[in-house]
Amino acid sequence: MRRGLIAAALAAAGVLAVPAAASAASLQGVVVQKSAHARTIAVAGANGRVLVAHVRTARSARLGAKVTLAGHMRSDGTFAASSMRTIGRSHQARVSGIVARRGHRGFLLSAGGTMLAVQSHETHSVGQPLTTTVTVSQEGLDEDDQAQTTSRVEVSGVVGALTPATATTPGSLTITIGNQSIVFAVPAGSDLGTLAVGDFVEAKGEVVAGVLTLTDIGNQEGDDQGDDNNNQGGDDGGGGGQGGDD
Q1: What residue ranges define each of the domains in the chain, with the CATH number in brackets?
Q2: Which of 91, 138, 144, 241 is most buried, with most CB under 10 Å away?
Q3: CA distance readout (Å), 58 to 12, 81, 123
Q4: In sequence order, what are the beta bridge partners of 200?
Q5: What is the model's pTM?
Q6: Looking at residue 86, what is its pLDDT?
């Protein structure tokens, strides 16, 4: 099994592999971005993974809303929601991605196929994998001053390129999310089995000796974010729940 073989190689390299989440045609998390024009929202799960969801209307999804969506994954790594339900409100969210650009007042985080603008007093390097906690308000995202950041990243997307590793030579894996790509080093000795370009996968990695290194990977037919996917009732056709402004 691909995951077990990767785990063995990573154990030898001193990196712990984490089991991938189970597939499901549901999504739960906190709204951290929305576009009424594009009819999309970005949802951050409890583990920090961000996914862009296509909804019937984004007007009713306020930033910070906890939502449950039903639907399916698209081939481009985004989520197509057939229904959306607001189940609560959160003033904080955990987000995971790659620092794409720095500015005077913060940085842009490439996460789940979108760019999140985060206000911050911290200095993060461009290209750095980052998982951090942000305060969510209607004005946007603000990195918590006391946030514990890690150099781990977790993404779902399509395999764009693959160079298999050998027993002695590392390989590489490119995951494409929308129009963005993230490249992971694949440790020597890892066997990715039948993984092929075009497969939709969930990949996890962390920085090892300055290189973003693959720690776990699994094929995904869907995604379940958050720690409870049992709240599937109360279908509102993608527009119910809590009202909001653009």
Answers
A1: 2-21+152-219 (2.40.50), 26-89 (2.40.50.140), 92-143 (2.40.50.140)
A2: 241
A3: 46, 11, 32
A4: 158
A5: 0.64
A6: 93
